[in-house]
Design brief:
about 0% strand; 14 helices; about 80% helix
Length: about 300
């Protein structure tokens, strides 16, 4: 607890330093100006002492102000002014968030659920919605999509309002196998021209249809994403895989190379997946050729 407090204190001091220094300079300037107007003689020692004292006191005031006001290290746009201060509730939330963003998802989920149960009657409506959202996010990252969707919907019913929610609900719905409902939800995201997730939707839909083993539909959406240059490297990669699944290996290889040249995310993982799909397709074609030969032999 002591270590965490001093960590927050150091972080608050760093954030307060620019404004605190400026405030100290202004106060020092006003002090010197007042002394000049009042014709008070200031020795060099007194001037230096006053400058140091005003600077330190300004920094201290701004540090305390920043510490009391509080701020969040992660997702400030989502958490806002909730879970601020040094209460156990806020500390528990900050700890859970830290675990979440350090990819210790199981531990984060445990703390978020502890927060939800222990403070059921003490959380504000906004705080309840935020906790439900993070519980959903943990389940989502763990690929427990039904649980994730339940908690996303709970967060929405509790008043959670952030443009990321419709997008994540659509993604989980698709992962649950309900492509039609997912398309409806994705359409809502596309209809919101201010949504920062519009450029991810077509690639998401393409991936959803790849997972459903429907490469024709996947290729249609990846093609739209390529045309609009939305998440362009990922769209090229998805189109490469869809083409290979459809048997067009030459086009798939060309798009595969383009995806790498355009710096697709996780090139090693993408290459491994692509090669796996390619090997399966080549094996399928080889099996078909062998069956065709057997059929030819029988006809003789």
């Amino acid at each position: 607890m002591i270590k965490a407090f001093f960590g927050r204190l150091a972080d608050a001091a760093l954030k307060a330093a620019p404004i605190g220094s400026l405030l100290g300079f202004i106060l020092f300037y006003m002090t010197v100006l007042a002394a000049e107007l009042l014709r008070v003689e200031l020795s060099s020692t007194l001037v230096i002492g006053a400058a140091a004292a005003l600077h330190v006191s300004s920094l201290a005031v701004m540090t305390v102000h920043t510490l009391i006001r509080g701020s969040h290290k992660y997702d400030q746009d989502i958490v806002g002014s909730n879970f601020l201060g040094s209460s156990r509730k806020s500390r528990l939330f900050a700890q859970a968030q830290e675990l979440h963003f350090n990819r210790r998802i199981n531990s984060a989920l445990t703390l978020f659920k502890q927060l939800e149960s222990e403070y059921a009657d003490k959380l504000t409506q906004n705080e309840k919605a935020i906790v439900s959202f993070y519980i959903a996010r943990c389940y989502d990252l763990m690929r427990y999509y039904p649980n994730a969707l339940i908690n996303y919907e709970r967060a929405e019913s509790e008043g959670f309002d952030n443009p990321v929610l419709p997008f994540l609900k659509a993604r989980c719905t698709g992962a649950n196998g309900d492509a039609d409902e997912a398309l409806n939800l994705y359409s809502e995201v596309l209809a919101d021209v201010n949504s920062p997730f519009c450029n991810l939707v077509r690639n998401d839909i393409g991936r959803m249809f790849l997972d459903k083993n429907e490469p024709e539909k996947a290729l249609e959406w990846y093609g739209q994403a390529i045309e609009k240059r939305e998440s362009y490297p990922e769209a090229l990669g998805g189109a490469a895989i869809a083409n290979v699944m459809l048997g067009d290996v030459n086009t798939g290889e060309r798009l595969y190379r383009q995806a790498l040249v355009n710096h697709i995310k996780d090139p090693a993982g993408f290459t491994e997946y692509y090669r796996k799909i390619l090997a399966a397709e080549m094996q399928r074609k080889d099996t078909e050729r062998q069956l065709s030969k057997l059929g030819g032999d029988d006809s003789k």
